[in-house]
């Protein structure tokens, strides 16, 4: 899949929020998204809300992908969407990883983060491929959609 | 410029006073009185003695919850139902960031709501009294396990609070745990921690120190981990630490794991001064776990078997719920018992594996390359050498989130599942060693009929959670996390 | 006098007709029509093909419940959630006793109450139609597993019912399973079963036969198990069986288990005619399990690891609930997945254990002693030789409940945990081999500072359920099942 | 412990009922009880109710120990105590092993077998030592009781 197949490059911001240092997941996502033709701005671990917002506006991003593994996601994301609104950043927002402390039920977790403003919430069983497919759908990238349909038909 | 030299009594005191102001509980720390408290503890709570005199691998889980009573019952459960020999107290993430205020908030929330709003026990907030209550109420030695780059106040409070073992180190709690901290700074901070441990040790209260061997937990080549253990061991010994437990995280290839633990023990005794008592700790698989308790038990089973063959002094166990989140106390105890059963069934067997000696020799040679490079980079000073070696990439850790490391090294498994290095960056390694790795990885690439690429690395990262050791390409793309093969190329 | 000779077509037919009168469902058996049914089955339900062409150890659990729908969903669960490669249908105990009337009562009770009032699936009562419905609805090959000394009607009904694999044999389903049945009689009965399997085989429908290797499941010395496998294999081959899966039950010492599986495979190929395709099956620990699921997972883990090293064609898995009673389907599937994870993580590793060759050579020599004795006892006829050898005690099985075996042989573990023979009875074994066992057991007795006695045997019987491999004397008498040490002497 | 320490030999009948062939448990029990000084009459596996009753009356037994592992104990023991009563065999009866099919709750199992007439019901975690202690208590063997008290004091 070459970049050229998109009408215009799709930019996604990727990072781990709060003081979380789990880097492996975003490393894998970065690689997979880049290979699939996305422009990935990887902010790395321990990224603050402000850094996410600044990067999104600076790169005129289409989507912001927030990762959190260590169990403090809920605290770390309080007010994030208000901040984005204040900064007039209008992007699709995803959050994924291990979002709750302990052995929680994922449906409950999903509700919590949807309420916080995220467009989609992913658990830690999410394969990079699902993220790509979902971004294509949500950002209306039709070339790939069509191709996918062909492939799956 | 930071050097590997012992802090003077004055320096120790100066830092001590300053650091204790960081949070109100710091003021309760009184060295002399703390010595007396430690002396009052019964023999079976003396961490170093229990560990160093054991005649079989001791088991220790990870566990930490915000409130004191809960932490007591958690540890009692792990001791009683899990038959843990050594207990942990895992510290929350705010404390790791020295955000004691936020930790306080979390603790108060937890006390009110009963929810675990922190992912660990905020020991600084509980203070010396709180720690001692924990030590008093729980009937086994307890270690502080954390991940705190600047653990000075945590050490001051927990040592005074009666803990006699403390995990971490300037590299192992920096590189895998932070983005921005400089190594010069963490080395300085840990010199204080180690000096404080040394000061207790000199008064007859041995504080066991345990550098964190698994690092990023993700396909770390054994020699890199061992070199960092040796560096942290040397730095600690300079400050007077006399009980050191060097760590290593399972990679899953039995021969390589046994070889690595032997190399660690051997090099530990060689590189560290005679006065230091070196023990080893084996961490059950620290990378991504299968999202299924039954399969996770398989991973834990392999850890137990490997431990029984390699016979480290201590094993840090995982729970079958590792994938999902912080485990329930029942699952945590189950991980202990599964491991215990395996070790006790296998440890009396005389199991000698072919190829361990060769692999051990290779690991030792690699480690010596790295140690020589550190020596050279620092003109003989290990503190300076480490900083410079990381700077130049001569020393590096795969998947390091830290800006202090190049993070250029990429590991991949060979055809036998041993972790080799696929992308070297500037890692200081002799060419003939690189050639060995290259040849092994070429074998694998040939078996799989594909080129070596980051895709292979990514497949290996997911392999164990997908149920295999080696991330072979699959035709079946339906199954969960190994999807993407066909489309992301 | 029964001899190892092929039943004639007439004899087969005569028995066939007689046996089908034992229960009404027998009348539905029609050989020609059954051949047509088998031919209609898809390739992935052809048991022997699937097993013999596999490139990794296939997994199979044990499972049987009374009602058809329940059996279907149980098997679907084990296939889907447990990823079992091969499925079982375990038969209830009344059927094993040929008490079809009582089985019918149990089945009807079960249908009404929904309770599992039988400990398995009464295949005779379900009849040809019921069996075929099961085979049709479940999407993998299914084997009949039972423990029936006289399994003639069961074989007639289940073969016609579409099953293509059948466990058991005249010795392995007699000696461990009954008190009074004579070997002459069970050999005669199994000649029919094997001849029937042979008749299907000749028509292109291979029926896989699997002698039951673990026998009493309790510290059976490998050579005894292997000799019995060879005898049953020979008897079956004479009757035309061409797909034979010889079994072996884990003893828990990795070197001995790997050696035994290799010896089994090698001797199987040597002693059985060329036309027979010999495969091997490894049973995870068949003795007493720990009364704790977490510890049981450790036992299962060791089974998986051993299987990955020895690479049998098939592994029969245990569940973590083995101790308690018939497992839930979830626990059964969990045992499969734990085993799968371990095998898949270890099987690609090149693990070569020291001492396997020597142990294998010892096992082979011991087995040859027993086979020679059988040969001599029967003047070249294996059927007669087996009967006479059991009679004289030249062949024997420890803990045999059957009057047909002396049950004089007593096993005990040596200092390395390998199963040796402590009391020989009349077992036909060369003196120098006995000397090896004696020396090994003397080492253990010395380590433990006690004499060899039944107490040692009893301790070994309980050891794995108590969390160890070897039943060492303990000072701690508090812990459950190892109590009694101080008082029962 | 020598036989002589009992005032008179205590005889127990031991066997596995029904068509159950699990012999290891009773082999261990036989050995432990014999070593502790009991006269053990071991009927082996697959013993019928009638055989138990006949042996008990023939040996003038003090106790009958019924073992069952394979999950059919309830059916196999129906009417056993009625049979003993008919045969005028008055003994202490124990049953032990794996008494129910599946993962049952033991308390329920105990009730079932107490109702069937057994004096005591043991699960499969029972150590031989517990059986010995219990027999001593139930059969009033005081020498050993006294010794036990000393040992445990
Ligand atoms: C490796 C590891 C570590 C390493 C991390 C090294 C590093 N710097 O990366 C070390 C050992 C340092 C570590 C430290 C800690 N860890 Co940790 N760690 C793990 C572990 C075992 C694997 C994580 C991993 O790398 N997985 C492999 C990658 C490829 O998968 P992934 O991260 O899940 O990412 C995938 C998906 O989640 C998804 N995804 C991720 N983010 C996003 C974002 C979006 C938008 C989308 C769509 C998808 C997505 O896509 C990714 C690719 O498939 C997990 C448990 C597990 N999963 O098995 C625990 C785990 C995450 N850690 C945990 C904890 C508590 C910690 C510590 C706080 C405690 C401690 N004991 O020290 C510290 C935290 C330090 C810090 N400041 O962050 C907990 C979190 C608990 C919770 N959430 O309830 C876990 C679950 C373990 C446990 N059961 O207790 N850890
Ligand atoms: C070894 C074994 C076998 C061997 C038996 C060899 C032999 N002839 O003895 C073989 C492989 C042949 C076998 C066959 C079967 N088995 Co089986 N077997 C076992 C196993 C693994 C161990 C039993 C054992 O020997 N334990 C060691 C001894 C020392 O302990 P014990 O028997 O429990 O006895 C102690 C206590 O229970 C107690 N006790 C016992 N009896 C009594 C009586 C009294 C009065 C008292 C006070 C105490 C007491 O004291 C003993 C000493 O400490 C158990 C599971 C387990 N426990 O781990 C299954 C198990 C008992 N078997 C089971 C089954 C279903 C069978 C089969 C019906 C099915 C099959 N798959 O073939 C057949 C039955 C055949 C028959 N006709 O009996 C089930 C029973 C299920 C249930 N009750 O719900 C079990 C629990 C396995 C399971 N989870 O499914 N088995």
Nutshell version of this structure?
The complex is a heterotetramer, with two copies of chain A (153 residues) and two copies of chain B (489 residues). Chain A contains seven helices and five strands.
Number of strands of chain A: 5
Straight-line distance between termini of chain B: 48 Å
Q: What string gives the helices and strands of chain A in order? A: EHEHEHHEHEHH
CATH fold field value of the domain at 8-21 and 45-124 in chain A? Rossmann fold
Major β-sheet annotation of chain B:
8 strands, parallel
What gross morphology of chain A would you assign?
globular
- Most extensive chain contact? B-C, 47 and 47 residues
CATH architecture of the domain at 8-21 and 45-124 in chain A: 3-Layer(aba) Sandwich
Indicate the percent of residues in helices of chain A: 40-55%
Q: Report the span from N to C terminus of chain A.
A: 19 Å
Give average pLDDT of chain B, whole number: 95
Rg of chain B: 22 Å
Q: What's the number of structural domains of chain B?
A: 2
Which radius of gyration of chain A do the C-alpha atoms yield?
A: 15 Å
Strand-residue fraction of chain A?
15-25%
CATH superfamily of the domain at 8-21 and 45-124 in chain A: Cobalamin-binding domain
**Major sheet: arrangement of strands of chain A:** 2-1-3-4-5
Strand residues, percent of chain B: 5-15%
């Amino acid at each position: 899949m070459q970049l050229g197949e998109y009408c215009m490059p799709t930019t996604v911001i990727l990072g781990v929020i709060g003081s979380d240092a789990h880097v492996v997941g975003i490393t894998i996502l970065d690689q997979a998204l880049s290979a699939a033709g996305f422009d990935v701005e990887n902010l790395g671990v321990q990224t603050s809300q402000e850094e996410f917002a600044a990067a999104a506006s600076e790169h005129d991003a289409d989507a912001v992908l927030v990762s959190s593994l260590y169990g403090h996601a809920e605290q770390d994301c309080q007010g994030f969407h208000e901040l984005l609104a204040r900064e007039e950043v209008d992007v699709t927002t995803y959050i994924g990883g291990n979002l709750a402390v302990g052995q929680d039920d994922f449906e409950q977790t999903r509700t919590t983060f949807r309420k916080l403003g995220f467009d989609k919430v992913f658990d830690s069983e999410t394969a990079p491929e699902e993220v790509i497919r979902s971004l294509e759908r949500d950002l209306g990238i039709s070339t790939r959609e069509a191709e996918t349909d062909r492939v799956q038909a | 410029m930071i050097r590997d030299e012992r802090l003077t009594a004055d320096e120790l005191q100066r830092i001590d006073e300053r650091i204790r102001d960081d949070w109100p509980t710091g003021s309760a720390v009184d060295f002399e009185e703390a010595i007396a408290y430690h002396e009052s503890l019964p023999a079976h709570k003396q961490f170093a003695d229990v560990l160093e005199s054991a005649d079989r691998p001791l088991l220790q889980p990870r566990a930490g919850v915000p409130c004191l009573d809960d932490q007591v019952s958690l540890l009692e459960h792990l001791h009683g139902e899990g038959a843990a020999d050594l207990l942990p107290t895992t510290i929350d993430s705010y404390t790791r960031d020295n955000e004691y205020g936020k930790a306080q908030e979390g603790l108060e929330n937890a006390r009110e709501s009963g929810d675990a709003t922190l992912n660990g026990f905020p020991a600084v907030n509980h203070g010396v009294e709180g720690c001692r209550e924990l030590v008093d109420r729980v009937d086994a030695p307890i270690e502080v396990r954390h991940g705190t780059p600047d653990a000075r106040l945590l050490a001051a409070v927990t040592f005074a609070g009666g803990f006699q073992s403390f995990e971490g180190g300037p590299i192992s709690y920096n590189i895998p745990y932070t983005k921005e901290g400089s190594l010069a700074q963490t080395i300085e901070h840990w010199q204080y921690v180690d000096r404080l441990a040394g000061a207790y040790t000199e008064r007859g209260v041995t504080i066991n120190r345990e550098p964190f061997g698994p690092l990023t937990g993700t396909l770390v080549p054994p020699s890199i981990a061992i070199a960092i253990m040796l560096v942290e061991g040397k730095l600690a010994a300079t400050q007077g630490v006399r009980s050191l437990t060097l760590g290593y995280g399972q990679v899953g290839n039995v021969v390589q794991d046994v070889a690595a633990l032997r190399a660690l023990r051997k090099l530990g005794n060689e590189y560290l001064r005679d006065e230091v008592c070196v023990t080893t700790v084996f961490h059950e698989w620290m990378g991504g776990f299968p999202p299924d308790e039954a399969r996770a038990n398989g991973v834990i089973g392999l850890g137990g078997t490997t431990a029984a063959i390699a016979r480290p002094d201590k094993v840090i166990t995982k729970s079958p719920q590792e994938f999902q989140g912080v485990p329930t106390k029942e699952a945590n105890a189950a991980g202990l018992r599964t491991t215990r059963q395996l070790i006790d069934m296998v440890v009396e067997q005389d199991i000698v594996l072919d190829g361990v000696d060769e692999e051990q020799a290779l690991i030792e040679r690699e480690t010596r390359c790295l140690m020589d490079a550190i020596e050279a980079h620092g003109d003989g000073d290990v503190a300076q050498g480490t900083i410079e070696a990381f700077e130049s990439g001569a020393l590096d850790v795969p998947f390091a989130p830290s800006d202090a490391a190049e993070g250029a090294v990429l590991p991949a498994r060979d055809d036998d599942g041993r972790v080799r290095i696929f992308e070297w960056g500037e890692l200081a390694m002799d060419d003939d060693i690189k050639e060995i790795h290259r040849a092994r990885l070429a074998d694998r690439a040939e078996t799989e009929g594909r080129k070596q690429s980051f895709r292979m690395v990514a497949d290996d990262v997911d392999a164990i959670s997908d149920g295999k050791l080696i991330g072979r390409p699959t035709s079946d793309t339906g199954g969960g996390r190994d999807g993407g093969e066909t489309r992301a190329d």
